[in-house]
């Protein structure tokens, strides 16, 4: 019996996807719910599982093809795996008749077989395969570092750079050409040798944008074109939060099985500020302003495929520990490509932390249709004045980008001041001030 492999429903507003890499090839045995192929959508990458056990009969849609919901990707011959297994020992049961000895050339092991063993059976990513084909690399020459040993683009580039470096060592062995002595002083080498004109096109790499990257680019540009974006800044003394975290991080982790980070405090501080300045938690819908009396906070997470913003729903009803647990879980699943589309929709306000990469200051772009986004930055010691004394304090710059169409400058400044006050005096969380 043959069972079709179809493109599943991918979530609200998603009507098509791009076929990524196939994890199996025709003739391979598959188990129920075993991942067969990746689909790249505008927001997430989804693995399509096997609907039944058997053998992958055929692949109808090649990698890179755009498909719609319900399209047939391939088929599985159900029950064929059990029939295929006993057929393997047949050559051993009936050995061929003896032949006169003759010299036979040894059969080298196929490079692809070696590569699949070294990289967990995973095919290289599309970008990596393109680099390998252009630079004459076999899969056996590259050590994969991706999931299940998959070869990524970075692995192929690193292997290519290592191969290119080897012949350069032998060049100094060539004897330099001898020159006849000159009667006049030698001309500088810079004048004797004209600079060569390298082929720029040969040193370029063209990679098709993934659907996620296309969506990120389109949405960011739409936000710039639609909203009247403005950014206001402030700084915050992180001494109190760092002291609190240092004193209780071990007990917190032991009790809740999650690390006590900074993001939970920022989520709590933003909710306090959003309650006081509801315009930052609102959005424009046509000629109406929609004020949201709930707090779904998006937390930006950077992955290999791009930036995603999973949403901590009803964050105002959660404890600090529950927020930290949710953020840690989002981070793990985002890096593994396991987030669902629903988990990245419906946010009312967003927070992004460029400080983890060393950013000192930035102007984050709105996550439309939201009206505000807070940018966190790196913590560094600075000399500031406290009670007439110059002291060193761990300071962080904060940036609030907002839609000036509905958020006035006064509201934006008030919002940042409230966030600053909550972080510099964490007791406000306890007293709900």
Description:
The longest helix has 18 residues, at 153-170. The model is unreliable at 82-94, 103-118 and 168-173 (pLDDT under 50). This protein has 433 residues and is of the alpha+beta class. It has 12 helices and 19 strands. It folds into 3 domains: 2-84, OB fold (Dihydrolipoamide Acetyltransferase, E2P); 114-163, Dihydrolipoamide Transferase (Irregular); 229-431, Chloramphenicol acetyltransferase-like domain (Chloramphenicol Acetyltransferase), CATH 3.30.559. A hairpin with a 4-residue loop joins strand 4 (35-40) and strand 5.
- The end-to-end distance, rounded to whole angstroms, is 66 Å
- How can the largest sheet be summarized? 7 strands, mixed
User: Which blocks of ≥5 consecutive residues have pLDDT under 50?
Assistant: 82-94, 103-118, 168-173
What is the correct CATH architecture of the largest domain? Answer: 2-Layer Sandwich
Assembly type: single chain
**Helical proportion?**
25-40%
Given the structure, what is the number of helices? 12
CATH topology of the largest domain: Chloramphenicol Acetyltransferase
Name the beta content range.
Answer: 15-25%
- Total count of domains: 3
Q: Which structural category fits the helices and strands?
A: alpha+beta
Shape descriptor reads globular
Please identify the top-level CATH class of the largest domain. Answer: Alpha Beta
CATH superfamily of the largest domain: Chloramphenicol acetyltransferase-like domain
Radius of gyration: 30 Å
Mean pLDDT: 81
Beta-strand segment tally: 19
